């Protein structure tokens, strides 16, 4: 019996995006949730990708549309109800005032980390070269037009158009 003593080679956990081989990388993030705690993962990942020089596109669909709707973007909420990750009794989430309390506490925790609120975070992403797209079907379902959206949303497009636009991109669904 022979034993292979060769050391296995492993890829680094965090790839280096500043090499010539990383040119042309794209990231497509589908933002489908409009509650405060689900808005941040997509924005944080988009910001990180842009910082590494990755072309980044965000597609807002279903409740994620609240993030780019000028009437709702500044008032996203966090609810404990049905969210077992809060590690609190579920009955508390349904009590009057708990959504307000939970939202205030989450906003305070985020602000302590110097992370901007959602509208300002989107401003930062666009200023860094990120692209914002709205879902045609979601706009139609909610009877919204481009006039209802942030000015920096590049257009209301179909899911098929987004797939074509982001051909070859890594895709994240949040």
Q: Strand portion, in percent?
A: 5-15%
Shape: globular
What structural class should be given to the helix and strand makeup? alpha/beta
- The secondary-structure element order is EHEHHHEHEHE
Spatial strand sequence of the major β-sheet: 4-3-2-1-5
Mean pLDDT: 87
DSSP helix fraction: 25-40%
The total count of strands amounts to 5
Low-confidence stretches: none
End-to-end distance, in Å? 50 Å
Main beta-sheet strand count, sense and barrel state: 5 strands, parallel
| Rg (C-alpha, Å) | 20 Å
How many individual helices? 6
Secondary structure topology:
Layout: E1 26-31, H1 36-51, E2 55-60, H2 90-93, H3 98-112, H4 118-127, E3 131-135, H5 136-141, E4 153-157, H6 159-165, E5 170-173
Parallel strand pairs: 1-2, 1-5, 2-3, 3-4
Helix pairs in contact: 1-4
Write a short abstract of this structure.
The chain is an alpha/beta fold and 174 residues long.
Defining traits:
single chain, 174 residues, alpha/beta, 5 strands, 15% strand
Can you give a write-up of this model?
The protein is an alpha/beta fold and 174 residues long. The chain has helices at residues 36-51, 90-93, 98-112, 118-127, 136-141, 159-165; strands at residues 26-31, 55-60, 131-135, 153-157, 170-173. A 5-stranded parallel sheet has the order 4-3-2-1-5. Helix 1 links the parallel strand 1 (26-31) and strand 2 (55-60). Helix 1 packs parallel to helix 4 (118-127). The mean pLDDT is 87.
């Amino acid at each position: 019996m022979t034993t292979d003593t060769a050391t296995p080679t492993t890829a680094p956990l965090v790839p280096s995006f500043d090499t010539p081989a990383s040119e042309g990388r794209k990231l497509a993030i589908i933002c489908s949730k409009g509650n405060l705690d689900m808005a941040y993962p997509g924005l944080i990942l988009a910001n990180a990708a842009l910082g590494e020089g990755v072309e980044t596109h965000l597609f807002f669909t279903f409740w994620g549309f609240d993030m780019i709707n000028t009437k709702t973007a500044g008032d996203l909420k966090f609810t404990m109800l049905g969210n077992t990750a809060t590690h609190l009794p579920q009955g508390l989430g349904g009590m009057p005032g708990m959504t307000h309390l939970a939202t205030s506490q989450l906003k305070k925790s985020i602000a302590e980390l110097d992370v901007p609120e959602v509208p300002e975070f989107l401003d930062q992403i666009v200023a860094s070269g990120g692209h914002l797209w709205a879902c045609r079907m979601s706009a139609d379902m909610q009877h919204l037009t481009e006039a209802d959206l942030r000015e920096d949303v590049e257009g209301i497009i179909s899911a098929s158009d987004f797939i074509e636009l982001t051909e070859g991109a890594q895709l994240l669904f949040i």
